[in-house]
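for the record, two folds in this file. i put them one after another cuz i was lazy. first one right below, seq on top, structure tokens after. the second one comes after a little note so u can tell where it starts
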Amino acid sequence: MSNPRPLDEEAYDMSGARVALTLCVTKAREGSEADLVALERMFQQLGFESTIKRDPTAQQFQEELEKFQQAIDARKDFVSCAFVVLMAHGLEGQLEGEDKQMVELENLFEVLNNKNCPALRAKPKVYIVQACRGEQEDPGETVGGGNIEMITKDSPQTIPTYTDTLHIYSTVEGYLSYRHDQEGSCFIQTLVDVFTERKGPILELLSEVTRRMAEAEVVHEGEARKMNPEVQSTLRKQLYLQ
């Protein structure tokens, strides 16, 4: 028997609009079109209004995200959740635009925070980053045998600037992220499979994505390599997409 849904105060209200923006450099990134097709299928199934921008320059990464934020804040209806997918070559903390210039991930993440995007204040913001974070490769390893109430009910309710955000990186800091020329990236394809096949809170689904990726092997330049995503969460509640 599946676990019952938590009470409303324990789960985000997903009854409003769901919006998604995908910024993807496809040039010199074979297989990225397969990832875009998979993501579009996922967003359609999960009820998102989805926009794709191909081959943004470094400046356009920033500009498109700011346009997305302005459009969300200008809406008259209630927005429940926003997904941002960023796919490009990269280094730790940076993405490479189509023009070979670099954009800082931190600058992109700030656009939708609780200070800069009032419409998404206290709402879940999910960033999916499919990019290298360094040059290291992982050959894999063999496996052997108090609750404090901070404020009173009478205090004005405030929220930290950086809550309700989920960053999902395709790989851990310092490591390469692999992509198949035809089939797309192991990360995006696995994430789409899990998010469309399974129900449950998103962090539980991401554990399944990590498990599947940890079991898989990627062959890179004739050598077997391992890869796993990294998840950073400041979500305050359970986030259900199904």
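(here's the note) second protein begins now
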Amino acid sequence: MNLRALHIMNEETHLPAVQHMTQHVLNQLQEHRSRCPPSLRPTPLFVGVQGPQGSGKTFLTSRLRAHLANPPHSLAVTVLSIDDLYLPHSGLQSLAESNPHNILFQGRGQPGTHDVPLGTSVFRNLKKINEVHAGTVDIPIFDKSLFNGQGDRISDGETVKGPVDVVVLEGWCVGFFPTSKELVEERLKEPVPTLEPDMFDMKAFVSVDHVLAVNEQLKRYVEWWSALDAFIQIKGPSSAQLSIIYQWRLQQEHNMKTKNGGKGMTDDQVKTFVDRYIPGYVFFGDGVTKGFSGGEGAETERLLPSWIGKGLSVTIGNDRELLHVSNF
């Protein structure tokens, strides 16, 4: 199959999901604007988009942006990937060296490997971008090809000028919430749901302390999530939500290698790559719909995501075809 035919197939497969995503954003934008006093220009609607590696969330987000930006909607849309908020290479190195026995910090990906102050600054400035006399906002870019694939932040980012109607933040762990030590210990004892036992051994991969180190870092991300007004979650079929990530990510790598002359990871390297993300899904992923998981006392139990009641769940199949949509 040539690249044009593959692109057309991707468009046709993803179109139903994109249509639902577009309508969800339009509905939320209308409600968002209705809450703004008539004398003020509304702030941009902030939408979180979360989905696992290989699910096509970046492609879906790009098509969502195109649908919103083109007639008849003609909206100004800014897309920010959480990947572009990684620490610079030196920061990632420092984190890995200071946590030599924690595999979750050996490379980018997990909460703790992002520049939280930078992200907070970008979000705050984007919130104010529609105000009179507001300046421009620089969106950082992280180049994953630098330093033999370890990546680094580059200076030539995107500059955004208002007015902006919609800001989309997409990423694999967008909306993940910290949890309690008790819940980490409990889940570490149990088989990983929707994942074949011989595919991944959680107990041999991480310890409670490893997960809690990431959990402590994740607490800093809650300020990011508080900026979100609405949410879209992309999920695999309920019976294989985690195991299918390996299949999707492997397909993604093979497709890339057919285009660039074979440059990329081996199949074993792809599995190792995905392995490092599985604990994030298992221990923190249900935060998208539940917020803080575990803990004691009424105060912690009230820590719910700001987008509850304004969320869209998009379930896709093995070939990323739309299976089901629901609201949460």
